[in-house]
Amino acid sequence: MTLFEYLSVAISIVLALSAGQILTNLREVLDPSRRYWVHALWVVHILMLHIFVWWSLWAYRDVQWNLGTFVVILLAPGVLFVCSSTVVPSYASSVDSWEDYFFTVRQWLFGTRSLFIVSAGFRTWLLLDKPLLESPTSVSVPMLALCLAGLFVSNRRFHGVLAVAAMALLMVGVSYFRLQAGAG
Description:
Layout: H1 3-24, H2 26-30, H3 37-56, H4 67-87, H5 98-128, H6 137-152, H7 156-177
């Protein structure tokens, strides 16, 4: 077993726990009597990020591994875990309205989503020596702008547009840049 394989197990465990937080409560989120489509779209968005983070991990197989490298790579999955537990809490069955819940945790959601973008971009720049504005991190710049807007704007109609725009941007980024394993 290589050091990359050994350490990627720990990263995969964090990602699995984080995705499990969402998957365990997905039925609650999609319950028609409480569902809020904007929240549900963000839940799917965050869940998809887990797949793409794991998929991009292959790009780091040849980095010089040490504790610092491990922490830098583990930072994004760790922040994603916080984001997941924000968008779908462990007490999901007691949430009466996902719309009310979304606007209660909106700043935490967009704050952690923004921190995720910054930590992933930093990781790519530091460990893969890629310019911050080079693909696929170039998709992160408009996504960060969307998340920062979501952090500061509380208008419900705006959040509907924001959720659709963020999902579209995620799909563009994924289809254009991340089709091959290890695309940074």
